[in-house]
Amino acid sequence: MRLCFLVEEHYRRDGMPLDVARQLAEWGHRVDVLRPGDSLLAISEEVRAGSHDAWVLKTVSGGPGLTLLESAAAVGLTTVNDVRSIRGVRDKAIAAVIGRTRGLPVPVTYAAARWERLAEIPAAEYPLVVKPADGSSGRGVRLVRSPDQLSVIGPELAGEGLLIAQPYVPNSGTDLKVYCVDGELFATERSSPLHPGQAVRERRVPLPGSVARIVAQVGEVFGLDLYGVDVLLGPDGPVVVDVNDFPSFRQVPDAVARVSQAVLRLARSGTAVSVPGALPADLVPAGGDPYAQLGFGEGELL
Fold first, then answer.
1. What pTM was estimated for this model as a whole?
2. 206 falls in which pLDDT band (50, 70, 90)?
3. Contacts of 182 (CB under 8 A, 6+ apart)
4. Nearest-CA neighbor of 192 among 141, 247, 246, 144?
């Protein structure tokens, strides 16, 4: 198979997904790695060439890779994960609406384009967790304990775009991160970014049945095959506080091999998004090297 991995600059030295790309190459597959954040892309011609069996994205929220992935999907090419599913979780405001509407245990979520508007949230909702709607890797996450503290922390969030705020879920100070690899679930425990002073060794832990059911439901609701879910064990039960497409899969045994096999299965399943106006199959060129054809020199071949 021939696969195209889109890797943002933020992840250019990360094991995931580059180790997956290398593993697939060792198994005899052709893997091209593109860095959309640091390349001049002949985007219309690169996608139109249609020479990859699937496109795989590892990007920060709001990164240019998502545009390229959506372009591939728009002409009927296969993407991993389904591009519509990625968009649904990349925007945390959208994810909260979808999750609560579909019965997932997601906190009440407020949204505001300016941090000053968060002052209108009732005092009874405090403490609040405030973060950018397009945040990733813990960027801009703040625990706001009172309305008075909001006036101090608020200016730090200026320029972050749309913000969301959710009532803080009392918990032990550790996060439960559950990874799903093509239907298999793996639970890990790690330090919470809201409690940096509480040292917790990241490790695999048993997965409670109640959490497993919720994480499986997350995959069904959002249409994801490779994903991670941040869960807090609150006083009223598990609460979903974040969903990530194509996460790090840290602590997952044989993660590289498992994820590689999942990517191949999804690519072979041909889960292309059906989009009105997509090119008919007989109009999409088959075979050939798009970089040679298009003079596109920023790709890396593994």
1. 0.85
2. very high
3. 225, 226, 258, 261, 262, 265, 266
4. 141
Which tokens go with 239?
């609460």
What is the C-alpha to C-alpha distance for residues 220 and 217, in angstroms, rounded to an integer?
5
pLDDT in tens, 84-141: 898 889 899 999 999 999 999 999 999 999 999 999 999 999 999 999 998 776 678 8
In the chain, what percentage of residues exceed pLDDT 90?
57
Name the one residue in this structure whose structure tokens are 């990625």.
86
